[in-house]
Design a protein that fits this description.
Elements: H1 2-27, E1 48-57, E2 64-74, E3 79-84, E4 97-103, E5 109-119, E6 125-137, E7 143-154, E8 159-171, H2 175-180
Antiparallel strand pairs: 1-2, 1-8, 2-3, 3-4, 4-5, 5-6, 6-7, 7-8
Length: 181
């Protein structure tokens, strides 16, 4: 009877070990669902990390003011993170941005809003900056163009400046990105 119990325990241990092994091995063979090259047209998404350049323009004339490089990360579930710093501006004078995004009708269209805090050279809080952006993914799903409305707010949340922008960007692609740079 004791031998029969040991055999059953050993058989269960072997089955459990095989199940875990199959699970681990098969998880390594699942393609990255965020690589748009592996998705069909209806599954493309903004979710992922993007290298972007925001060109700020005079809203009335369209004259270019400057271009600011940055990173946008769109998370599953509708939140996003942002970081950019204008050339010549200390990164200590602005925090990282945080916001929310949503898909608009059609697979290519998205909108999002984010905010970040601003500081003066001594580190004192001076207010915030808010951006509202409409994005259109390109046909491949790996690039985008956008339009943005920008508001700079003082420490009391009063709008002190409004601006416009034309962000554009490309998906950060890990291995693909490393071979291109």
């Amino acid at each position: 009877m004791h031998l029969k119990k040991q055999t059953v325990v050993l058989a269960l241990a072997v089955i459990t070990a095989l199940s875990i092994t199959v699970s681990v091995v098969s998880s390594h063979n699942i393609p990255d669902r965020h690589s748009s090259a592996l998705l069909d047209e209806h599954e493309r998404t903004i979710v992922g990390v993007w290298r972007m350049a925001l060109t700020t323009v005079n809203c009335q004339t369209g004259d270019v003011i400057r271009t600011i490089p940055g990173l946008w990360t769109f998370h599953e579930g509708g939140t996003m993170s942002e970081y950019a710093s204008a050339p010549g501006l200390s990164p200590a004078q602005r925090g990282s941005g945080h916001g929310v995004w949503q898909r608009e009708p059609g697979w290519q269209d998205y909108s999002f809003t984010f905010i970040f805090y601003r500081y003066d050279a001594s580190g004192a809080f001076t207010g915030s900056q808010r951006a509202k952006i409409a994005v259109k993914l390109g046909a491949s799903g790996d690039e985008f163009t956008a339009t943005s409305a920008i508001e700079i707010l003082d420490a009391n949340d009063n709008v002190t400046f409004t601006g416009c922008g034309t962000p554009s960007g490309t998906r950060f692609g890990g291995e693909k990105e490393q071979t291109e740079n």
